[in-house]
Write a structure and sequence with these properties.
Distance between the termini: 15 Å
Helix content: 40-55%
Order of helices and strands: EHEEHEHEEH
Strand content: 15-25%
Shape: globular
Largest sheet: 6 strands, parallel
Number of strands: 6
Low-confidence stretches: none
Oligomer: single chain
Number of helices: 4
Radius of gyration: 14 Å
Length: about 150
């Protein structure tokens, strides 16, 4: 299985989650390419699944780097992934905890990208008690991709 992760980070928390997802995918025998927003040019439709990850800015906003990347992928380049899922980091001190995750899913679905699995929302860093949550979620997504591929054949 070939996966890509497209993410944006400001504090490093979202990058930590992306790296843990990558590690989990490779431990399961898959391939995974990690792309920071604005720093890559690759056809995402070549991947079995694309993970999109972002922090939430302020009180519930999708950060400009991810907003621009989604516009480039979905509208400008029409580089539409076959299948996607979303994750993010945030702070529960804000009213709209990890709302950027919901917004990414909305934009993907609006442009015809099927999203699978539940959305992963992490309180700040995935270190410690939340690490297992990321690993379990990633395994669920990988199983979902296998089920999806099987149902299409």
């Amino acid at each position: 299985m070939k996966s890509a992760i497209v993410f944006t980070t400001i504090s490093g928390n979202t990058q930590e989650v992306a790296e843990l997802i990558t590690e989990t995918i490779t431990k399961n025998g898959g391939e995974c390419d990690l792309f920071h927003t604005g720093r890559f040019a690759v056809n995402l439709s070549l991947y079995d699944i694309v993970f999109f990850g972002s922090y939430t800015w302020g009180d519930g906003k999708l950060p400009v780097p991810m907003r621009k990347e989604l516009k480039r992928i979905l509208i400008d380049d029409k580089d539409i992934p076959k299948l996607a899922t979303v994750f993010g980091t945030g702070d529960t001190n804000y009213h709209f905890f990890c709302r950027a995750v919901d917004e990414m899913e909305y934009h993907l679905n609006k442009h015809g990208v099927e999203t699978i699995g539940s959305k992963l929302k992490i309180e700040q860093s995935c270190r410690g008690s939340q690490e297992q949550k990321v690993i379990e979620w990633t395994n669920q997504i990988l199983n979902g991709v296998i089920d999806y591929e099987t149902s299409k054949n």
